[in-house]
Amino acid sequence: MKLKETMTPAKSAVMLSITALVLTVYVWFFLHAESQISIAILLVAAILAVILSRRFGATLLVEQSAARRPRLSRWLAVGCGLALIAAFYSSHFVLLMLCGVLLYSTACLGLTVQFGYSGVANFAGAAFFGIGSYATAVLASHTAIPHVLVIFISGVIAAVIGSLLLLPVLRTRGHYAALVTIAFGILFKTFIEVNDVLGGPQGLQVPGMNLFGFSLNDGFSLFGLEISFYVPYALLSLAMFAGVYALVNALERSWVGLSMDVVRTDETAASTFGLHIVRWKVIAFTMGNFFAGIAGGLYGMIIAFVAPNNFTFGDSLLMLSIVILGGLGNIAGLIPAAMIVLILPEKLQFIQEYRFLLYASLVIVILLFRPQGLLPRKTRIFFAKKGS
Amino acid sequence: MMAGQSLISVDKLTMRFGGLTALDELSMTVHEGEILGLLGPNGSGKTTFFNVLTGLYKASSGSIFLDGENILGKTPQEIYRNGVARTFQRSRLSLSLTVFDNIVIGDYQHMQHGLIFNLLRRKAFRAEYDVYVEKVKALLEIFSPPLVDRLFEPVDSFTMIDRRRIEVCRALLSQPRLLLLDEPSAGMTHDETDELMQDILQVRRKLDKLSVVLIEHEMNVIERITDRCVVLNYGKKIAEGSYVEITADPYVQTAYLGEAA
Amino acid sequence: MSEVTQYIFNGLMLGVIYAMVAVGFTLFFGVLDVIKFSHGDTLMVGAFAGLTASIVMMKIGLASPALQLLAVVVFAVAVTGLLGAGIAKFLILPLRHAPPLNTLLATLMLGTVMREAVRLFYPDGSNPKPFPALLPTSMVELGGLSLRIDNLILLASGLLAIAGVHLLITRTKLGMAIRAVAQDGETARLMGINFEAVVLMTFALGSGLAALAGVMNGLYYNEVNFNVGLLLGVIGFAAAILGGLGNIYGAIIGGFLFAALQVIGSAMLPALIPGIPSSYKDVFAFAVVIIFMAWRPTGLIAEKSSERV
Q: What is the mean pLDDT of residues A65-73?
């Protein structure tokens, strides 16, 4: 741990900026690539880069820099996101994918609080995402509630339904709660499909977002350039992800995160030190579903319709794959993992069909051989040294 | 070494697990401010007694009075808030969490848990956090100074002995009224045990009226530290008194060593 | 009258199949404290293995129903028995010391792998495939009711299979070894029981039972579908929990109970809410299970767990 002293604030800033630049450029190439060969080259390059940087200690330096200057890291990350959105200002498809990555990652932040911190397995993540979408569809179409509030309410609805579901079984061991969320995950689709009020199998249309009187679905032009109407949505998604990320980050580095971790790792000892086991699990579960709900709400507005087919059990498992792949409990790993799980199949068309098979197998391999995932969770550092 | 009023009063406490009677109408008292040794061969019910006392098990019959109130049936959380803290025979720490994490959770009842406080009022949280860092460091200074510099390392990178010390710190952080120690010196050398006991006494001097119940097998420790002893066998109390008195007791000798030939 | 008997018979059939799946879940939980979530999909693999066997038999000209049936059952049970043992050896046992949710997660994913593998790699796997009718279809008069012989045979075989497993567990040396390991693996090992062998055998047994259930499912509905394992697995899990995890009698009762709930649901709901589709019976049944679990979290017959403090 003495190594920390070698990374001064200034050196860390340089290291982080270089890393940010490299990553942004790489992702730009990745999103831009069309042919299978270029994708293959990029993938190989990434794998090589990771192996080499680990070998030569570059990874360790980056980690220490990030620990030394956490606030700078976050601003740089937001900067990368803005740069990418700007770079693809006219590409509907890429912006849509970015929105997907950002919003699924937001939901996965919720899953991390539930599973990674509190140990409550949620096999119905996509269902709560879907509840958010449906709530937004109904509220935005049939009421005059301002859209930002609609999204917030959608999150609340998802959170409330989740709590009703789980409260009965939280006093018991983990697999009973798992059964409840698995059953819900499988039956949610059934429940919605047969309900004509909610559009049945065809689903519902969702009106576009209306922010301060400006309807986002109309495109706009800036300096004579045609800006895709997805740009404001992408900015909103980025803002949502960044906001939830900041909250979850603060949560982890607080008594709340600590309590959740202790409840997860040793319930018996936790109870003898006064921790309210059920309370923390309920808070985690509710909060996580709220995040999934608001993400789903915004997503619904972006893709302009919701249908039961988007929120199947397989989609819930896909979300869990993201959480496990990225490193359970480490929220920094979510975006890379989401890109791998969500964007890669779009780029490598031939694996689209094999998505579920592939990612399920990947999770099994990870659980067997590297359960900590891509970016293992670090020990808790509440506050970095002064001068960050 | 003063016998204060009765802090804990146990009356005909019985704990049955199916066909096995782990505690058999146990009656005893713990006086305020005393250090009580709880002895007995393996399986005599000592840890079971701790588990019932801290609310982890529900007794089959009998009662335990704390401050004149029967605490049987209360949750572990409620009993903790009444000022009872413990260590475990099989060390129970969260291995993947840091030293600081494991110790600071000991004072859970005094921390602020509100979501708004923790998530949004970060400056105020930082202030509380800094106070706790100082408190934890102060405790660690007493029990294991080298750990102070390694406050934010995961507990699983430390030796068993250090982990026991960390567990004792966790129990002491909330300044409890009653400290239950379950074989804290297991696996320690003579010197390490001495040191641990001295450290506990040092903390006790600063805390008003800290009572300690100590499950131990190391007779030297019992002799030097305890004011009184209670000896259990098969869940029953078979002797009570000072160290000298109980070691002279033939029933105790039989229990530990078997029938004289 | 005959509509009620139809309902009852349906319920019994479902109950037998659920019971067989639930027994598997409970056996695995008993022996290793794990939830093997791919169990339902193991059933599906068994059904497909049986289907393959019957196709092969027809291709090589041994098309008599009796021979086909024999081949189907033997092949299905053998394949899944091996599969079950393989899963135990390469996935479940290595994950023994990881947090229990990891095993649940891993087997859940494994179930997905099996489902997708069949969907993608079995010829025309994504569509339901007809399962040959290998049992005599004549009617028989029983106590004033007309019943189909094939359904009776299926019901009887299911009950026999469960009884067989019960006898094996309670009357044979292997069964005793399984019970010993279920109670206390460490001690069983010290007593000379080959822990790993018993675990593998238990998984093979449970999986073989599931294969039988899969074949029965195929014969009853005359079709198999790659998707059938997911819902059956969750129902089997719910039934095992309903009856109390770790208890075989509980699993059997749970299986029949769940079937009863589904039957009641499919009978009652259209009467209460006209036009409600039949798939709501699943929602109804699970809702009841969830409410029940709120009242009795560890099932009808309490779980055998005990944690050393």
A: 86
User: CA B108, B113, B116 angle in degrees (round to 5)?
Assistant: 165
**Could you state, in order of their start, the residue ranges of all structural domains in chain B?**
1-83+176-261, 90-169
C58-113: pLDDT as tens digits = 888 877 888 888 889 999 999 999 999 999 999 999 998 888 788 889 999 999 99
Distance from the Cα of residue B167 to its chain's centroid: 10
Q: What is the pLDDT of residues B113-139, one digit of tens each?
A: 999 999 999 999 999 999 999 999 999
Domain tally, chain A: 1
Measured between alpha carbons, how far is B48 from B148 in angstroms, rounded to an integer?
Answer: 34
- The reply to whether B75 touches chain A by the CB within 8 Å rule is yes
Mutation site for C-interface testing, chosen from A111, A115, A165, A172 by largest number of C Cβ within 10 Å: A172
Which chains contact B through at least 3 pairs of Cβ atoms less than 8 Å apart? A, C
ipTM, interface predicted TM-score of the complex: 0.92
CB atoms within 10 A of CB C268: 13
Q: What is the pLDDT of residues A218-259, one digit of tens each?
A: 777 777 777 888 888 999 999 999 999 999 999 999 999 999
Tokens representing C208 are 């073989």
| Confidence class for position A97, pLDDT limits 50, 70, 90 | very high
Residue B1 pLDDT > 50, yes or no?
no
Tokens of A248: 């979850």
Q: Which CATH number does B1-83+176-261 carry?
A: 3.40.50.300
A117 part of a folded domain: yes
Residue pointed to by tokens 């030939």: B261
Q: How far apart are CA B7 and CA C204, in angstroms?
A: 58
Task: Please state the rounded mean pLDDT for residues B29-58.
Answer: 92
Would you say residue A386 has pLDDT above 70?
no
Token readout for A142 is 């049939």
Structure pTM?
Answer: 0.91
Look at residue A355 and tell me if it is in a domain. Answer: no
Task: Provide, as residue numbers in chain C, all residues whose Cβ is less than 8 Å from the Cβ of A194.
Answer: 276-277, 279-280
Please indicate, yes or no, if residue A50 is contained in any of the structural domains: no
**Helix residue ranges per DSSP H, chain A:** 9-32, 36-55, 58-68, 70-87, 92-111, 125-142, 147-166, 174-193, 230-252, 255-265, 267-272, 277-303, 313-326, 334-338, 344-347, 349-352, 355-369
Q: Residue A212 is part of which domain span?
A: 92-347
Report d(CA B259, CA A141) in Å as an integer: 86
Rounded to whole angstroms, how far apart are CA atoms B111 and B128? 8
Q: What is the 3-state secondary structure (H, E, C) of chain B?
A: CCCCCEEEEEEEEEEEECCEEEEEEEEEEEECCCEEEEECCCCCCHHHHHHHHCCCCCCCEEEEEECCEECCCCCHHHHHHCCEEECCCCCCCCCCCEHHHHHHHHHHHHCCCCHHHHHHCHHHHHHHHHHHHHHHHHHHHHHCHHHHHHCCCEHHHCCHHHHHHHHHHHHHHCCCCEEEEECCCCCCCHHHHHHHHHHHHHHHHHCCCCEEEEECCCHHHHHHHCCEEEEEECCEEEEEECHHHHHHCHHHHHHHHCCCC
Q: Closest CB to B126: pick one of A269, A380, A383.
A: A383
The better pLDDT of the pair B18, A222 is held by B18
Residue A254 counted as domain residue: yes
- The residue among C38, C112, C288 with the most chain A CBs within 10 A of its CB, best to mutate, is C112
pLDDT tens per residue across span C223-262: 899 988 998 999 999 999 888 888 888 899 999 999 999 9
Higher-confidence position of C86 and A1: C86
Those of residues 258-297 in A touching chain B at CB distance below 8 A are: 258-259, 261-262, 265-266, 268-276, 283
Task: Confirm or reject contact between B118 and chain A (CB < 8 A).
Answer: yes
**CATH number of domain containing A229:** 1.10.3470
